[in-house]
User: Which sequence fits this backbone?
């Protein structure tokens, strides 16, 4: 006896793998762009940074130097203006008694004659004798506490005499000299003939500012 088994028929469909594959070919006219089209940040080398910093420092130094020179020029112009405005002033001793404070300054100044110190140290010590603590460049004695500028040409013992130009060594950056008036056309000067304290002429023809402390 023969057994027969039947099977359903199947139709196989072969997939075309070639057509399903992803294409990787590039068209001849494709445009990928050049390196210049890429947004690549530009960075400075260390040498370029150092050069830029050095240039900036040089420019700042040049600006500072220009400011210093401009200030010196302005101070010279101011001094010249003050000298011109005071050239017609005739100084003479004012009548009246010497105040106790002025007397103390004069006594201290006389006691320092022959010692070695510059003009500002001499005047500062004279002021200290009357209880005033002050020291500065010659032109700064116009700001002595309690003092005022005298404009009428009078001189009193104890007055502070300020000179813009006496042929000194300050070179225009500061006034040349300051002294203490003691009367009769004389003053005690520090830094005289070098570095000593001396009694000499008040040099009224070279005076720029007179400061008086009542």
Assistant:
């Amino acid at each position: 006896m023969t057994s027969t088994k039947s099977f359903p028929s199947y139709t196989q469909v072969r997939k075309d793998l070639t057509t399903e594959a992803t294409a990787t070919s590039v068209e001849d006219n494709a445009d990928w762009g050049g390196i210049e089209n890429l947004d690549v940040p530009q960075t400075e080398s260390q040498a370029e940074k150092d050069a830029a910093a050095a240039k900036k420092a040089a420019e700042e130094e040049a600006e500072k130097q220009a400011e210093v020179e401009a200030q010196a020029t302005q101070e010279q112009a101011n001094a010249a203006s003050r000298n011109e405005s005071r050239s017609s002033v005739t100084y003479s001793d004012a009548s009246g008694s010497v105040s106790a404070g002025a007397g103390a300054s004069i006594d201290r100044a006389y006691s320092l004659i022959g010692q070695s110190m510059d003009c500002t140290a001499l005047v500062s010590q004279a002021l200290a004798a009357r209880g005033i603590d002050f020291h500065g460049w010659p032109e700064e004695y116009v700001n002595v506490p309690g003092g005022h500028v005298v404009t009428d040409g009078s001189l009193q013992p104890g007055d502070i005499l300020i000179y813009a130009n006496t042929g000194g060594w300050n070179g225009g950056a500061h006034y040349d000299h300051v002294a203490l008036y003691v009367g009769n056309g004389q003053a005690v000067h520090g830094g005289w003939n070098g570095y000593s304290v001396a009694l000499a002429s008040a040099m009224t023809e070279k005076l720029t500012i007179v400061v008086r402390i009542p």
Q: What stands out?
A: The chain has four helices and eight strands. The longest strand covers residues 177-183. Residues 52 and 58 are 10 Å apart (CA to CA). The chain has a mean pLDDT of 80.
